[in-house]
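Thread: quick sanity check before group meeting

JM: Hey all, I'm pulling together slides for Thursday and realized we never actually wrote out the predicted structure for the chain we discussed last week. Dropping the sequence here so it's in one place. If anyone has concerns about the input, flag it before I start.
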Amino acid sequence: MAGIDPSLSATGMAWPDGSLETIKTKPADKDWRLVEIADTSDNGFIHQSPDLVVMEDLPRNAMHAGITGMVQGVIREKLQRHCIPYALVVPSTLKKAATGDGRADKKKMLAHYTQATSLVNKDDNQVDAFWLRQVGLALTGQEHHLADTSTLNKVKEPEGITWQL
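JM (edit): ok, ran it. Output follows.
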């Protein structure tokens, strides 16, 4: 199970072994940033072999949707090549699951991460990826750290996967 918070500047990854990673890219690298994200995520898929990836869905803000969509596209291409199913979670569902509040800000998401893990992590990209992985664990009937699973029935099952809520 892996969680991915796609972003052109800093994509957060939560891997099956519990490790967290951020793929940071520089604006000066322009479209090569997509190649870096694709290559790094591909390497993670090869070494971590997740059976499912839960990824944050596109934001509703039209300006950022196109940019995030490009990042999501290169990651989806790698998932297809590795035959890894994926599910998409909208930000409000993720926030509700992690904190009990669908409008939680980054500060609250970080605080709930610390509460759940007894660890401090100031990288909100990694923390969002952690919570996305937790959503996947909950959806597949595994132990998780979510505060509220009441809205997870909104998450569409990928082909070949049955949620165990």
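AS: nice. The first helix runs from residue 32 to 48. The beta strands are 2-5, 10-14, 20-24, 53-56, 86-89.
JM: adding both to the slides.
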